[in-house]
Design brief:
The chain is an alpha/beta fold and 475 residues long. It is 28% helix and 17% strand.
């Protein structure tokens, strides 16, 4: 295949175990299951941060966001590195962005807005203006006026089409899909396209469902926050796990409806005769959110943490002629790899600045050990290191080994535990992910030399990406 189309689908806070093919009760995701059956499932796939803004910056650039200081919400932005959209557009691709944008506190005029980092066409909501959220039902000036003080945390502001406001009322997941489908439909017979579709689903607040969907599921609605009804944090605590009635059912409904919208995207490719010429990738921006009723299965931890449950994500690749149908890849891969992979597929020269790797070798038989079929679990990559650093917590994975370090007394750690009801851990935790993916057995005291090796590796990495020395790591 030469110069394939590329459809990158990014969801928000999707739990690692929340696909029906995995047998998790109550989950209905036939389209994601279809993608997996027709392509590759990467079981050990990671994002570069356990929260959305820095993770998304790495996805779009293929570079560790720490290179420009992106550690947490308060320091995240897109940086100045060329994005994969810019690289593909310069190579003749038509580019489109549809959905949630969240690279920090962006405005329509700055680099975080899609028109300013490589997208010819765009329809997007600036979630950085609303605590990372977009309302599932309302996006208009009227809604902003009606919600008043609540408009900011609930994200009811209009979307943007390019640099012009775009008001709508309707289900946000479907509106995002509709705009992307229109874009795909206009590309028939034209230049190859790169479409990035970034759903707000399944981010909280999942009760914001169409009335007919609530009725079909026998669910009662849950009121949005309105000033005067309660203090915001008190209301928020009642709107997340473990306090929201039917919270898991709301989450699963949003997941099912997003899955249905993804099905319409795949149908649009079929209708254009483009399915066989299109790479389709699905992943989420960080691990499943425990406070939003996501299920990470046997993985420990959740969004906000560097446990596996915070950074290991669903990652599906349908690539006709490259990824054999139904193959399972256990080689560790990263969302950082997407930019390098898409560039290589499009014939764009590689960049020494890429922190990711072209995924084609691990998606094909040729890139695996002799005699290992595409349906096997894949070969290990013991020499590859993946790093994470949020300031108050850091981690490194090398082959089967993972070292996690958490400053449990840090104010951010305390905030995460208190507000998001999430375990952060504390101290140094060394685990063997090959035998203990749930990170239950801390081997640090039994393997001090390995701990020291991985600490030194992280020191080297911090220097490479331009972070100052971490005083918690002994020289």
């Amino acid at each position: 295949m030469s110069r394939p189309n590329i459809l990158l689908i990014v969801s928000d806070d999707h739990g690692h175990a929340d696909r029906s093919a995995l047998g998790t009760p109550g989950v209905h995701t036939p389209v994601l299951d279809r993608l997996a059956a027709e392509g590759a499932t990467c079981t050990d796939a990671y994002v570069s941060a356990p929260i959305c803004s820095p993770s998304r910056a790495a996805i779009i650039t293929g570079r560790y966001q720490q290179r420009w200081g992106g550690l947490w919400f308060d320091s995240a932005d897109i940086g100045t590195a060329p994005t994969i959209a810019e690289r593909l557009r310069d190579a003749g691709y038509t580019t489109g962005y549809f959905g949630k944008v969240h690279y920090g506190d962006e405005t329509v005029a700055d680099r975080g807005a899609p028109p300013h980092h490589g997208f010819d066409e765009s329809f997007y909501g600036l979630a950085g203006q609303s605590m990372g959220r977009l309302h599932y039902l309302h996006h208009s000036d009227v809604a902003v006026a009606e919600y008043g003080e609540a408009a900011h945390p609930l994200g009811v502001q209009p979307f943007w089409s390019g640099e012009e406001p775009a008001e709508f009322d309707g289900f946000t997941t479907d509106e995002i899909a509709d705009r992307a489908i229109e874009f795909i439909g206009r590309q028939a017979g034209e230049a190859p396209f790169f479409a990035m579709v970034a759903f707000n689903a399944v981010h909280n607040f999942c009760w914001q469902l169409p009335e007919d969907e609530l009725e079909a599921r026998g669910l009662a609605g849950h009121a949005d926050w309105h000033p005067g009804a309660a203090e915001y944090l008190d209301w928020y605590d009642g709107a997340i796990s473990p306090n929201l009635p039917n919270g898991r059912a709301f989450y699963l409904a949003q997941l099912e409806l997003m899955d249905r919208a993804i099905g319409r995207l795949l149908d649009a490719l079929e209708a254009q005769g483009a399915a066989s010429d299109t790479i389709v990738v699905y992943l989420t921006d960080n691990g499943g959110s425990q406070c939003n009723y996501g299920d990470n299965g046997g993985l420990r931890g959740t969004k906000y943490t560097l446990w596996e449950g915070g950074i290991r994500v669903p990652f599906l690749v349908r690539w006709p002629g490259v990824a054999e149908a139904g193959c399972m890849v256990s080689t560790p891969v990263s969302a950082l790899d997407l930019a390098a992979t898409f560039a290589a597929a499009a014939g764009v020269p590689g960049s020494d600045d890429d922190d990711g790797k072209d995924l084609r070798p691990v998606l094909t038989d040729a890139g695996r050990a002799a005699g290992v079929s595409a349906r096997a679990a894949g070969v290990s990559a013991p020499d590859r290191e993946l790093h994470w650093d949020c300031g108050w917590q850091w981690a490194v994975r090398r082959g089967r080994w993972k070292l996690l370090s958490v400053s449990g007394n840090d104010p951010t750690a305390a905030h995460v535990r208190e507000i998001e009801h999430t375990e952060t851990g504390d101290g140094l935790i060394l685990t063997d992910l090959a035998g203990d993916p749930g990170e239950r057995d801390n081997l640090a005291a039994r393997r001090p030399q390995l701990v020291q090796e991985l600490e030194r590796a992280h020191v080297r990495w911090r220097a490479e990406v331009g972070l100052p020395p971490d005083p918690s790591i002994s020289p």
